[in-house]
Amino acid sequence: QSSACTLASMISGKFSRLLQALEMRRALALKDIKVAETQALAQAQDAEQRLRGHREALVHYDRRVRDLLQQLDDRTFLQ
């Protein structure tokens, strides 16, 4: 009886430590996921901002080209 209780206590302790280790690992994994998520979001926002800048530059360029194409004076066009 005594050795059975001791064995049960040992096994219970091992499972308790295993559960603790798994919970710690889970917490670390969640933290890593949050960090990666934050970094990915920041990169996506940076890329979006760059694309907006490129689009604005293209709109400006398109406007200039259209204005030039409407010039009747060749000298103005060539300048």
TrEMBL record:
Keywords: Coiled coil. Residues 2-79 form the TRIM8/14/16/25/29/45/65 coiled-coil region domain. It holds the Pfam family TRIM_CC. Residues 19-64 form a coiled coil. It comes from the Eukaryota. This is Tripartite motif-containing 65 98. It comes from Neovison vison (American mink). The lineage of its organism: Eukaryota, Metazoa, Chordata, Craniata, Vertebrata. The gene is H0YG27.
